[in-house]
Amino acid sequence: MADPLVSVLIPTFNRPKWFREALNSVLAQTYSNIEIVICDDSTNDDTERLIQKYLREFPQIKYYHNETRLGQFDNDLKLFERAQGEYINYLMDDDLFAPTKIEKMMAYFKNDKEEKLALITSRRHIIDGNGKIQDDIPQTRPVFDRDMVIIGRCFADYMMGAGNCMGEPTTVLFRKKYLKEPFGTFAGRRYRCNVDMATWLNLLLEGDMIYIAEGLSYFRKHPEQQALSDKMLIGGTIDYFHMVLYGLQVGLLQESNYRHLAIERANLTLKYLFYMVPRIAADYPDDITEIMQLKLQLEKNEPVPIKNYNNSEMKQDL
What we know:
single chain; 318 residues; alpha/beta; Spore Coat Polysaccharide Biosynthesis Protein SpsA, Chain A; 2 domains; two-stranded antiparallel ribbon; 11 helices; 12 strands; globular; Glyco_trans_2-like
């Protein structure tokens, strides 16, 4: 029986050099049944020229150059719509896969006969513009020191208090049919900044996950990345309050410790926003109104505890 098809989805924008490195890291995968779907949102044809020799050599590559620029969110959605695989892994055009990434993750999916797993993630490394591994930041430090299977809802609770320890889209391989809302959407709302966390929450509501302790992807940090503009900081704060509020409404954060940590993190994002954008009330009145309305709704929300999870229920050695 043939291995299940995995769709690797690459959104790209005006970065042909790093795009080529990203693409080569997919072509070097030890897992064979992969389709590569590329949506080019570039304002020039540099990437289109580069891709031509690949298209002649590798029939598994599908390439689309958008006639008009879509932006990151809609470009990601276009990729998802064109994916034919049962499993999905996005690859940002400046990131890299380790050669065995898909093979090691798919080994767990193929053994999951009851289809309890929604996603598989791993440790990831930060690299600089030259590909040199950098020191970890809090979100990239190892979550566990060995491979673990984890109850999806438990990790969702943990993640809302800890931040995005799951990883960027490059890091996670997920089961396509378990994503019930569009990529980057949670509780019917398109997220403005935390699109990855919105997606992981949706998946964790549907099934469990595996964390692989080995670093299987590389997240590149470099000067060309989009800076943390005022609008991104505002969007991230709105996202976080919405995430916690609607997480409660769908039955997450019922254990008090997790709930308090998530609310505390949302409040810290607001405190940081006021520090970074001191004129927010004057310059962005509609946004600050939305934030304060979400904050007020969250303060009024008093969920009834459903269950307290202990560590043995949350995780299991593999």
